């Protein structure tokens, strides 16, 4: 399973509220507990509002989000950056 597939599976587990704790999630994904934390950090660094719910005993999204893996042209990114600086 490649990086994007692991992120997609992690996203799916979070959406279904079925991650369990980090150790359980690592077993479900077939990765180490340390890798779970690395993937969660990668997602959070890119804006994913992930928290751990002690009540649900699962990682959850604090708000509704979509994970989209795509390529964006440099020209479009420059337009976005310029519009953000206004």
Automatic annotation (TrEMBL):
Top-rank taxon: Bacteria
Family annotation (Gene3D superfamilies): Winged helix-like DNA-binding domain superfamily/Winged helix DNA-binding domain
InterPro entries for this protein: HTH_11, WH-like_DNA-bd_sf, WH_DNA-bd_sf
Helix-turn-helix type domain ranges (all copies): 21-51
Pfam families (UniProt xref): HTH_11
Protein name: HTH domain-containing protein
Top-level taxonomy: Bacteria, Pseudomonadati, Bacteroidota, Cytophagia, Cytophagales
């Amino acid at each position: 399973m490649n990086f994007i597939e692991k992120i997609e599976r992690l996203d799916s587990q979070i959406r279904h509220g079925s991650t369990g704790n980090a150790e359980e999630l690592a077993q479900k994904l077939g990765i180490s507990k340390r890798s779970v934390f690395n993937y969660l950090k990668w997602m959070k660094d890119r804006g994913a509002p992930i928290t751990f719910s002690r009540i649900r005993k699962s990682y959850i999204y604090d708000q509704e989000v979509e994970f989209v893996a795509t390529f964006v042209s440099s020209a479009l990114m420059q337009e976005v950056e310029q519009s953000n600086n206004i």
